[in-house]
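Appendix B.2, paired examples.
Example (i):
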Amino acid sequence: MITIEEWKKREDLQTELKHILTLPAFKGAMEALTDFASPKPMPAPQGVDLALWGALLNARREGFFDALRNFQALTEMAAKPVELPAPWTETKEIKE
């Protein structure tokens, strides 16, 4: 099993996944899954608390879309650290 930290260090895997995401079969699968999870009218079971029913449906849907977003984010290369400028070497006193 690979951890997210190990994944971020593997540019070869990120590049390969980025390529896979462009393949027609994979793009079609992602579109089908997105359509499957899109909101559709769904009658609540009789006697259920409607607020709870809606909350559960939306929590499940949001988790699904969060997983898809995280999957696509795996293709983003790890950001290189930004090199900061050297710290101040001298300061000026303000005289009043």
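Example (ii):
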Amino acid sequence: MVTISLALTANAYADFGLSANVATEDDYKNLDNKAGLSLGVEYRGDKFNIGKDGISYEFIHTDKYAVEALATSNNYGFEAKDGKSFTGMDKRKISIDLGGRVIVNTGIGPVTIHATKDVHASKGYEAGIKVGGIAPHPPHWTGERKLTVAAAAGLRYQSKKVIDYYYGVKDSEATASRNFYLGKSAITPYLGVEAQADLTKHISITGNLSVTKQPNAIRNSPLTQDKKYQAEANVGFTYWF
């Protein structure tokens, strides 16, 4: 994933932004394009934030933890035109996931716990926990160049409705080369490393590399590559005005 963000502000901080994200897609097979581009707006405020991980409102904050309401999109779906594996299939819509998260500051880095419900597409639930990595809201420019690199590990839970919607195959969609498939709930563990470099007041670079262990509920789908492990990469550039 490559992220480019542009921000506009009238003070010392970069509060408003326009972002462009390019994300790698590697779990589905026979994709015509394994990288997707999305555009959006970024905002950094005291409590309200719009960023690459969605929209959040922080209603409890202490030195040790924060509690936030969260609106994000965990799954992007597909259309029949996206690859030959989807020919003749109904469109799977992008998810709109609403919920919350708790961020706890510990000696080994932030621990982030979230839970959301897709109110737009699958109507299923997701939850997860991440230990380490870069905090969801990194600080503004502090006046000095800084590079932060942190390991991260976590688990992601997706309910049966989520897996079946994005990886299942209906009776009406089954063919000689694409069997009917009913998805089940899944837990996906992952390991990775995340980095952020603040180069100047106007320029910062972020990135991460992660490896996930694909659960059988996803691997067994006729829509996916039968790989035990999947790698994802993300590089981002941000220019702050």
